[in-house]
Structures are given as structure tokens and as C-alpha cells.
């Protein structure tokens, strides 16, 4: 495996102006994880804690006619049982990043109607998991089965059963027509006129699958009711403040009654982006029993709780003979499952990603968000981007072949670049590109993969093993910042920092580390600003009572948004340290600078250590040296990626092997190469699984999920990963980011499936438009079955 940091001088050399930025610093939790000492939510134990099990519907669509819990309640060890009769009757929303006014509310803590196999019917808290499971089995339910719509086409067909009678938006109540939650429309120019100008027009329909996020850690919730009526909550969540808000709204209690504790996650990838149905159930059982409770989902329950939104996407593209794109039209049918979750926002983002890849004067996007009687879909790394990227990048290769233009050259002629406007997160967030390394990563990536071999591989159609080289490029935004103060998406963060008596610093942020090490990057940013070592910055484990608000770990915003706010707080603290140092040294503040743990006077050898400043401040009672910042983001720096892949296709078995990967990324100045490279490797693995094998399958007769476990749902493992993996970075600097940095998390995933699709097409001469590309689909494309 080869990992190259950059083609420009490597970080950490004598030419590097930074002491901490660019350092390959291990994650501060690495040793704790490796030794098994890091505490996850599943490790939380409280005396007297009860275990929860949930009774779930065996039917995809059914009314609860009657429910008898008397046998369960009489069982020894059962402390509380709840059904829809015990739960609040108000609908609630689940998204963390949206204000209540813009959030679809179609969930109930326990509904009186099941909308998918696995929907909640009742829940039990008991002295052990076994007792709770037996009690759940003793609950008697009479269902009235209703017709079910188990895919998007069936849901919008005339006469389809109505899944939701109403959806609440703010003060408004809407009735979904033909199970369509919302239709999103975006456009620029005149699409009809654009296609009239085109010399070549192609149209294809793509299907992209329902992929599971597959974090190692299963969802877990612990709720401890205090004697004063408050609730302490530990949960596998990407937002402690978002969870507090949504949980309070679902239960109808004040925010102040809930304190959510920050926890490390064993992966998330969007699976913990929204509040799930389980958190309010656990809270309600804790309130009813008066005892601490714990709910940990089984692997099957966890895999049925979230997924990527599957979609059917029709794309029509028009281009002039000289390779200029003139018209794009996309229509997407997006399956949100039984509840809205992130469905509308994912679809809006699909439109934004679609319209912001290339300079196309005439574009139109129409996205239909459709309810089905299947497990709900939710956020997943890329948030609608892979679903749009596969059709777009497939068309770019098809158009290139039609016109006889090299695919890399075609992209270089049409990509959006510095100064261009783009839709950052759907129709309401528009920004302009400030820094752009697309040309560098495309040209350098082509050279590294040996792109000149592609044409020869396309001509070699003999032999059992066919080789192919393909390209996919993508972009994503670093957060959701926008100029408008009042908008339909939240984007602000807060940090507090204090100096300790030994000269170290404590950073408090509500941002959740999903396992990627983003908080290590924050420590490096703070250390660089204060003239400390990254090892001297302690990142606190906090809670909603003690921390300033941070919206959520999503949208590739951790470094660009929350990291920038940490830097601003550190700059305030730096100014205080300089002021105190100037008092101690009896010099002007402007003559003092911080570096290497000291405050130094310019042009002299006079200095005082930060430890001495802290101890002097204590002895002289100047107060705690601390600072805070809370700020919203107003920009969304785009980060760009490309992946070149080489594949082998076995024409007898249809099996596809990824032989080599070259991954180029424009992430601005790299804060920590170890963390960024990890994101790129992980994003590629998820993208390749999306392209080749991953798909949650729902039985179209019974509505049951057929593969809700890792025995039947296959993902790439470390043994399947491509060993020849070359990572490189563009030489760019983003002025709006902390020390020139941009995001990477989602863009690392967005381009991988497209690269696989185009590589397979180069090998076999057929563009497969139905993902995942299973061996059967390959053999069918080759005409052998």
C-alpha cells in the first residue's frame, strides 16, 4: 500500500511554517481503543438499570385494533410496559440540522398504525434482557392488515394505499398525494432551448440501491431519571444538542429537563444523524419506571433502522460536438421508506449536487420524495451525492466516447471552477468557489494510474480476464453555511478553551467524534494558534449542560466550521495570554508572540512560559485564562475529489476485482494527513461496496427485510480492500478555512462508485446502469446468461 501526502514539499519539513498543522499525529483515543479502555455507550452501567426490548410489527402495513399487555405486566421482573396509549399523541420530526419550522413531523413515539415490518408496537423495561424478551412475546396484538406499497413505483400507482394521512410542517398540515412527501424542483436557463442547441443527446435511467451504513457499534441508549425529574441520556448520536432538542419535542417536556452526554462512536456514517424511534421510547420507559434503562438494538434491528435512500434516476444530457455541455435534465424518484427522516433534504441536496458538477447553462432537476412501507432511509455519507454522481459521471464517459474526446479532457473543459457559483446544499444555499484543485487532481491522477492504457484496454476483448480503467470525480461542501441569518438549515458551533496551571489547555466542544479523529484535528488547530503542542490540548468529554451548542457532525463540517470556531476561541485566548505576558514582562502587547509554549518579546531573548503565565495569573488572582466563541458559518468551501481505478472482470464468473486505486483530493491545507488518508480509504471502501455488492433487499410479498445481518448483507472487509492505493493532495489553500483547510469526509465517498462503473464499462464495453453491479448483471451484460 502506498500513501503519498502531496507532490509539493511534504508537511513537517523545514519549509513548513506550522508547528502542528500537517503533522501526522495519532488520534488521542487510539491507545484507549486498541487496549479496549475507551468507553462507548454500551459500556455505561448504572446500578438498578433495566433492559428494554421492543415489540415490532410483523406486517408492513396494519392498524392496531387491540393490544393486551396484562400478561407481560404480571411477569416477575417487568417494571414498565408502554404502547401507543401511554405515548404522547403529538407528531415529531427527527432531523438534527433543521429548525422545527422546516422539519416534516410524521413520527409518533409509538404509532397506532404500523407502516413497515419492524415498526414499533410496544416496549418493555425489565430486570434483564431475557425477562424483557419474554414479556414482549407475551403481549397480544390484534392487527387489521392493510395493502402495502413496498417500492416507490407501487406507492405512487393509482389506487395505492395511503401510508400517511397527514404530515405536519410547522403550523401547517399537509396530506401527501399518492404518497409523495414533497416534490423538489430546481432549474436554471431553458432546458428545451439547451437541448435544441445540442449535437449529441443521451438519456438513461439508473437505479441506485438501499445501502446500509454498517457501523460496527450497534445503536444504544441509556437514560437515567434523576430525583428532580431531569433525564441524563447517553446515546450513539452524532449530535448531543440535536438529540436534546428532538427528544424534548417528542416527549413534550422542556429542553432543560434533558442532559445528553457526549460519547465516542464506533462509526456512524450518517446512521446516527437523526434521532431514531428508540431514544424517546427509552426516555418514556425511564420516566414511567423511575429507574435507569438501557436499550441496545440487535444487529438486525440496527440494520433496519437506517439506510441510504434508494432511487431511480432518469438523466438526459445534451452536448455540442466540441465537448461543451449545454443541457442537463434529471428526474429522481427517491424512496424515503415509511417515515420522512432526511428524505426531503437528501432530495434537495441531490438537485444541488447535480446542478453544481459542471458548467451547464440549461439545467432542470425534479425530485419526488416517496413514502413506502419499508424501513425508513436516513442520512448516509454523501447525503444524496452518490445517487446523483453515478448518473452524471456515467454520462460524461458515454458522451466522451460518442464524441471521441478523452474523458479526462471532457471533464476539464466543463467542470465548475474558482469564481463559479454553485448550489451548496440544495436550492437555498448558494455559494462561490474560492479555491479549486480540480485540474491538478485530474491531470496528476491520470498520470499516476497510467491513463494512456485505457484506450488499449477497451480494444482487448479476448481472454477470460478483461481489464479496465475508469474515472469518477465529485465535490462536496464543507458545511451548510450561508449568508442568510434565518434559513431552513442550522449551521453554527461553539467552543470554550481554558489554560491550566501547568500551561496545557482544555477544549470543550459539543462536536461528536464518530471515530474519524476529527477532535484530534481540533486539538492541532488550537495548539497551533496558542503556540502549544497538540499533545498539550486536552479535549473534554462534555454534555449539553456544560457545552456551547454545535449543530451536528455531518456535511463534512467538522474541521471547516467547528474547527474554525475553535480557532476563533483560541485567538481570543491567545490575545489574553499576550496581554498577561506583556504585564509580566512589562512590554507592549504588540511586541509579544506565542510559540513553542512561550510568550516571546520580538527581537529579544526575553520570554515567559505559558505555564508561568498561568501560575502568575493564579497567584495574583487575575482570574481563569479562558475564552469562548459561538459563530455561524457563512460560507461552504467546496472540496473536490477524483478516483481512478483499475479493475479486472472475470468473464466466466462475472466477478470484479479492484486492482489499483489512485485517489486525488483537494481539501485545502491538510491539518492531519493520517486522518484525511483514513477518510479517503474508508470512503472508497464504502463506495466500492455500493457499486459492487451492497443492497438491503425487501421481500416484495411480505415486506420483510431479507438480509438484515452481516451473514447475508455483504460488505467489503479489510481483506477485500485494494492494496495498491495511492493517495495524493492538491496544493491549495482555502482562505475561509482554519489554516487553509476544507472538509473531506463525504467527498471521499462520492466518486468511488462512478469510477467503478466507468472502469467496468471500459473493460466489457457496456455501461451497467443498475447498481450494485453483481456478477449476474455482468454476465447478463456480456450476453452469457
UniProtKB/TrEMBL annotation:
It comes from the Bacteria. Residues 35-147 form the Aldehyde oxidase/xanthine dehydrogenase a/b hammerhead domain. InterPro entries: Ald_Oxase/Xan_DH_a/b, Ald_Oxase/Xan_DH_a/b_sf, Ald_Oxase/xanthine_DH-like, AldOxase/xan_DH_MoCoBD1, AldOxase/xan_DH_MoCoBD2, AldOxase/xan_DH_Mopterin-bd_sf. This is Xanthine dehydrogenase family protein molybdopterin-binding subunit. It comes from Pseudonocardia ailaonensis. The lineage of its organism: Bacteria, Bacillati, Actinomycetota, Actinomycetes, Pseudonocardiales.
